[in-house]
Design goal:
A two-stranded antiparallel ribbon has the order 1-2. The chain folds into 2 domains: 89 residues, Orthogonal Bundle (Arc Repressor Mutant, subunit A), CATH 1.10.10.10; 152 residues, Up-down Bundle (Four Helix Bundle (Hemerythrin (Met), subunit A)), CATH 1.20.120.530. It is mainly alpha-helical and 281 residues long. Helix content is 62%, strand content 3%.
Length: 281
C-alpha cells in the first residue's frame, strides 16, 4: 500500500490527475461498489498500467469510504491481477492482459456495461475461446469416444433442448453437454479448461442471459453435433462445428453491435479577418 505519511502533494501531478477521475460511491455499496468502480476505471483505460494509486488516506477520501472497505476492495483487485503492490513504489495499476488468468474473464466482463466498448471486446473473446474449446473437444470426441460416451452425449443433448426457454438453465445444460464431450475426448486439459466457465451460471447469470439470448436456434445445432461425433471423422467434425459456431457467434454480434464511437464535432471554420478599408482622400 502507498505510504500514508506522505502529504498529498508529494505524489505530484499523477496523483492529482488520478484523483480527478474518481468520484465518491454510495456508502451502502461498500466493498463491491468500490472494487467495481476501480475495476471499471482500470479496464476502460482511465487508470492505465503503471499508474501509482494514491495513498489509502487520499483514495478512501476520494471514494467516500473507510480504509477497511478500501483495503478489502484493493485485495479483490489484486487477486484479479489488476493491481500490484511494489516495495517502495506503493500500489500500482498492473497490465491485466499480462497478469489476469482466464478464470477471471467473467468477473472482468461483469464489471462493465454493454455500453462500454471493452465489454464487447471481452465478450467477443469469450465467444472465440468457447469456439476453440468446443471445436477441438468435438473433434477429439469423434475420434476417441466409446459407445457409453456417445450415449451420455446424446442424453445431455436431449436435456439441453428441454431448457430452450430459460437462458441460465440452458447454459447449465450446455456445460453438462460439453463436459460429456470433453470426457469423450480423453483430454484432462480440456476438462480443466471447461471449468473456467463452470461457475458462470451462479456467478454471472446476467452475462449468460445476454450470451444465450437465442437458445431455440442454438439448440437446433446439438443433434447434428451428436451425429458428427458418431461418425468418428475428427476432421469433418471440427470443420462442421467451427462453421456452425461461427454462424451462431456472428448472429449474436449482429444482435448486439458495439456502441458507435462518439462523433467529434468539426470545428467551425474561422472567419477571415475583414480588411480595413483605407481612408480615401
Amino acid at each position: 500500500m502507498a505510504d500514508d505519511s506522505l502529504p498529498p502533494s508529494s505524489f505530484g501531478p499523477d496523483t492529482t490527475r488520478t484523483l480527478a477521475t474518481i468520484a465518491p460511491v454510495a456508502r451502502q455499496s461498500v466493498v463491491d461498489a468500490v472494487a467495481d468502480r476501480l475495476r471499471g476505471d482500470i479496464l476502460s483505460g482511465r487508470l492505465r498500467p503503471g499508474v501509482r494509486l494514491p495513498s489509502e488516506r487520499e483514495l478512501s477520501l476520494a471514494l467516500g469510504v473507510n480504509r477497511l472497505t478500501l483495503r478489502a476492495s484493493l485485495a479483490r483487485l489484486e487477486a484479479l491481477g489488476l493491481i500490484t503492490t511494489r516495495h517502495g513504489a506503493g500500489t500500482v495499476v498492473a497490465s491485466w492482459r499480462e497478469r489476469a488468468g482466464l478464470e477471471m474473464l467473467g468477473t472482468l466482463v461483469r464489471g462493465l456495461k454493454p455500453s462500454d466498448p471493452t465489454w464487447h471486446e471481452l465478450v467477443r473473446s469469450t465467444l472465440e475461446i468457447r469456439r476453440i474449446l468446443a471445436v477441438e473437444a468435438i473433434g477429439l470426441a469423434a475420434e476417441r469416444h466409446t459407445e457409453g460416451d456417445l450415449a451420455a452425449i446424446a442424453n445431455a443433448a436431449r436435456v439441453l433442448c428441454d431448457h430452450a426457454d430459460d437462458p441460465v438453465a440452458f447454459a447449465r445444460a450446455d456445460l453438462a453437454f460439453m463436459r460429456s464431450v470433453c470426457k469423450a475426448a480423453r483430454n484432462v486439459g480440456l476438462e480443466l479448461f471447461l471449468n473456467t466457465f463452470a461457475r458462470w451460471p451462479d456467478e454471472h447469470p446476467q452475462l449468460l442471459a445476454a450470451l444465450y439470448d437465442d437458445c431455440a436456434t442454438t439448440a437446433e445445432l446439438y443433434p447434428a453435433v451428436v451425429e458428427v461425433i458418431r461418425s468418428r471423422d475428427g476432421d469433418t467434425a471440427r470443420a462442421l462445428a467451427r462453421r456452425a459456431l461461427e454462424r451462431i457467434d456472428e448472429a449474436w454480434s449482429r444482435r448486439h453491435p458495439p456502441p458507435a464511437p462518439l462523433a467529434v464535432p468539426e470545428p467551425a471554420p474561422e472567419e477571415r479577418p475583414r480588411r480595413k478599408r483605407g481612408r480615401t482622400s
